Amino acid sequence: MDFFFYPSSVAVFGSFKEGAIAHEILRNIVEGGFEGRIVPVNPKGGTVEVAGRRFEIREKLEEPVDTAIIAVPAKIVPDLIDEIGPLIKGAVVISAGFSEVGNEELERELVERARKHGVRLIGPNCAGIFGVHGKFFGSFEVRVKPGGLALISQSGAFGGAALAMGNDEGVGFSAFVSYGNASDLNESDFLEYFADDPNTRAIALYIEGVKDGRRFLMALRYATSRKPVIVLKAGKSASGAKAAASHTGSLAGSYEIYRAAFRQAGAIEVEEMEEVFDAAKAFEMYKKAGKRVAVITNSGGPGVLATDKLERLGLEIARLSDETVERLKSFLPPQCSVKNPIDLIADADYERYKKTIEITCGDENVDSLLVICVPPIFIPSEEIARAVIDAECDKPVIVNFMAGELVRDGIELLEKSGIKNFPTPERAARALFWLSRR
């Protein structure tokens, strides 16, 4: 499927009036820096100018391209596929009005025409695709920065919101695909593809329901054997399942069956949207982590919250060795607690954090560290960020700097060194839980 995510040429079909979907997709492709050939197509012809480039609108496609992006009325899509089939490898059908509104026959016809020409389909009723490392933004959704997360979404709107949220959370993407009604290619195909994609380090999947459970389980097992797969399942309740059926025409089915399948395959199931990105951030930094956690904090309350959450998630609060305790006592003020969680108290500075991280990291009873910083106004958060960056530790270190303006500069410094921040102790604890699942 490289012709979808790393194409050398693309044709866009639809209206190129300002604000029309095809116009917005064309603008995204051009502004995203796509280096291949771009062919806008509309029977009325004319010209279109986007992002400082002027294109002649072809009345019909007359030259081969890798991928066609189609945003025309549903009823004419099958005939269009028949016409351009010999010239394309794949088609992304943005158009809605197929099985999701009861037009199963029109969707069947679309698939038959595509198969006749050996064309693979994404959609219909979808929001398009991104091949971020191929500088290909074939969608009207917000563009994202390059990274390691491939997002597979049955819902176009969810996908768009997730991309925007990922930008805010500092997550980089390798690809995005909204597959809508899954008339041809579906979640299983994309799981298998991204499992082997060298630019993808983790896969996030939003699903409402699948049509072929056995195939899905095989694809999920294949993908999780190679990379972390983060799953957000919608349609868990009876009402949610009904809503899913009217949304993408999918059968949500019994949630218990899905949950068992996720567990069997080793997928990381999350409950909420923000958790998708917390898990993605964790796996961008580390492949896995053990269950025994040391908590280092300069504030007792957040340390207790983190400890509570870790234990509720089934992780262990590491029992520090006598040697580690003595080494910590040797330089920490007597007011500090050297039991786990280790409380460095409010005036903890660069040296106190750095040395504590290094000593604790060396303890054989510790698999990973959760470092919390709530800086007082007299200690800049950048100072503690530098301590985290400079500390020599070969185990996973998850960081919770909070909150707001006080830690903004410190978080920025951490980001530049590839260290992601988790805004609350509970979210940081969950990150370690997901790493432990691998």
From TrEMBL:
InterPro entries noted in UniProt: Acyl-CoA_Synth/Transferase (IPR051538), CoA-bd (IPR003781), Ligase_CoA_dom (IPR043938), NAD(P)-bd_dom_sf (IPR036291), Succ_CoA_lig_flav_dom (IPR032875), Succinyl-CoA_synth-like (IPR016102)
Cross-referenced SMART domains: CoA_binding
Keyword terms, alphabetized: ATP-binding, Ligase, Nucleotide-binding
Catalytic activity, reaction form: acetate + ATP + CoA = acetyl-CoA + ADP + phosphate
Single GO MF descriptor: acetate-CoA ligase (ADP-forming) activity
Taxonomy, superkingdom: Archaea
Enzyme Commission number(s): 6.2.1.13
A Pfam family assignment: CoA_binding_2
Domain CoA-binding: 4-98
Top-level class of the enzyme under EC nomenclature: ligase
Protein name: acetate--CoA ligase (ADP-forming)
Organism expressing this protein natively: Thermococcus siculi
Organism phylogeny: Archaea, Methanobacteriati, Methanobacteriota, Thermococci, Thermococcales
